[in-house]
Amino acid sequence: MKHFPKMDFLNFDLSKMKLGGFGASGSAEAEGQRAARAARMTAAMGRFQRRQADAFARWAEARDHAAAPDGGSGIIDMEAPQGPDGAWTAPDPAAAPGHAAPGGADIASAVMRTVRDGLAKGGITLDGFAGGFVQPGKPTATVPEGARFEDRIFTAAAGSRRYKVFVPSGYTGQALPVLLMLHGCTQNPDDFAAGTRMNRLAEAQTFLVAYPEQPQSANMQRCWNWYAAGDQARDGGEPALLAGIARAVLEEFSADPDRVYAAGLSAGGAAAAILASTYPDLFAAVGVHSGLACGSARDVPSAFAAMKGQGSAPGRNRQAVPTIVFHGDVDRTVHPANGDQVVAQAMAVTGLAETVERGTSPGGVAYTRTVRNDAAGQTQLEYWVLHGAGHAWSGGSPDGSFTEPSGPDASREMVRFFLAHARKAGASRA
Length: 430
Known about the structure:
By secondary structure, the protein is an alpha/beta fold. The chain has ten helices and twelve strands. The chain is globular, with a radius of gyration of 25 Å.
């Protein structure tokens, strides 16, 4: 049997094809007919490529939510790369208890990877079809009347990142607090804003919120690279970019430099912990939801171990930054031991008085809240252990991904914690 060479339809240059049936090959009329037909076929192929990209985006959205049949409390279960150039990937949903994988999941994954690679070879990227921040089917954050939610780009020696900034309607030029919100894997600024409802709180209490975006060019699953040694140090990598975004917002809006905060979920929570360690002179307090301590991993193998609760415990920060932590005690993605390590790392202040409170959220999620105050009665650490909760933002909205609407309102509690703290005058470079 004769074998024909494989044809890449996404890379066809139809203008160079010889199309018969137009009469004499050398006539001007025939050449015009060929050119017209080639143009029509090129346009049709372009439409086909766009349909492929849209189909892949819809499939990716369904995959992202496959672990959340109730549309709410999804689980970010990420598998480690198999090599230094690999990417974190979502595993077969069948590996998670209680979640059934759709038939032919492995085949579908292979097909979609082929489509994505083919689109890339043709010069087409999914980001190009995502319209910047908002991917097809992703939540779009609502904006109250008079407020603004605007796109920005920050560029520095370490690279560049897009971000969105929420400006409340009550802003009239006064020095407002600034909160940096760091999304989790597969999320984007609009999705994270919708799920955490942080813009609503910013509108009600009048503060600025910046949402940096991790692009696929930096991490295929849009995770912040918390496990990379180069992204855990000051004045380089992602910490420098995130600190730069915070400073850009301070400058643009003449905000309050003593009231700058950072919070994040999962990989974003780990990034917030890194900012507390590397920029204690910039951030007055941080919030870590389902994240990991700075230095809990230095490469891919140690990251995988840390996420499973088998990593080595990192040391304490040299300078104390008030920290509030939320972690579910049945988190299958980032082991609950990591919440304990975040708290231990933040305890640069000794002699703190401890109080423990137990309660249940209006939605029925039990929690244990541990508070540690200094001699002046100022809270330095607050740790919420969410009983029976997994890897999702507590008290979030089902309008966004990876939320647990029934839990205590982590956004509201973090804002309360943050606004009670201002940067100490003696804070210096780490």
